[in-house]
Design a protein that fits this description.
This protein has helices spanning about 1-20, 150-175, and strands spanning about 30, 35-40, 50-60, 70-80, 80-90, 90-95, 95-100, 105-115, 125-135. It is of the alpha+beta class. The chain has a domain at about 30-135: Domain of unknown function DUF4426 (Immunoglobulin-like, Sandwich), CATH 2.60.40. The strands form two sheets. It has a five-stranded antiparallel sheet with strand order 1-2-3-7-6, with no helix packed on it. A four-stranded antiparallel sheet has the order 5-4-8-9, with no helix packed on it. The chain is elongated. The protein starts with a helix and ends with a helix.
Length: about 180
């Protein structure tokens, strides 16, 4: 019975440890009264400098009036109050857009998204502001490296399973001693 409990806890601890190393993706949601938008940056919300970066905005309007096709929507990227890019949003549906921007350097950037209806009264004008951390491009290697958190998690899991097997073996030897 002891070995089953030890094995159960070994497996449980392994699962918890591996979950601690799972990558986390955070999509940022901003709102201006009835309109809100969720920002996602490819790849994995981790923009790199000097690389074309795709960003996706998913909009929601609690009044149900907003459609990006009827919006003069502008995205402005700023670095230290200097504008580095201004572009119209490229709608791919009524409430989502996909655009691309290239950040010149690793730094903190501000994305300002402003929208106004093409015809007055269609929906409420909005202004949304996001803060983005852009990292430097890392040199690429010819071979794909094994992610360190995954290696640590697998090592912990193997170690805990071996510990469980040792406890199981010890328990079974104590029960089979001959006199």
């Amino acid at each position: 019975m002891k070995y089953r409990v030890a094995l159960f806890f070994s497996i449980l601890i392994s699962i918890v440890c591996c979950q601690g190393f799972a990558p986390v993706s955070a999509h940022v949601i901003k709102s201006d009264d009835s309109i809100k938008a969720e920002l996602h940056i490819n790849p994995a919300d981790n923009p790199k400098s000097k690389t074309a970066t795709e960003y996706v905005l998913w909009f929601d309007d609690t009044t149900g009036k907003l459609t990006l096709y009827n919006c003069d929507c502008i995205a402005t990227f700023q670095e230290n109050d200097n504008t580095i890019a201004t572009q119209k949003l490229n709608p791919v549906s009524d409430l989502s857009s996909v655009n691309t921007v290239t950040f010149p350097t690793a730094d903190i950037y501000t994305l300002k998204v402003a929208g106004a209806p093409k015809q007055s009264g269609e929906f409420q004008p909005f202004n949304l502001t996001y803060t983005l951390r852009v990292e430097a491009v890392t040199p690429t290697k010819n071979e794909q490296s094994f992610p360190m958190p995954l290696a640590i998690g697998l090592g912990l899991m193997v170690g805990l399973v071996l510990l469980g097997a040792y406890v199981f073996d010890s328990s079974s030897r104590k029960g089979n001693t001959r006199v």
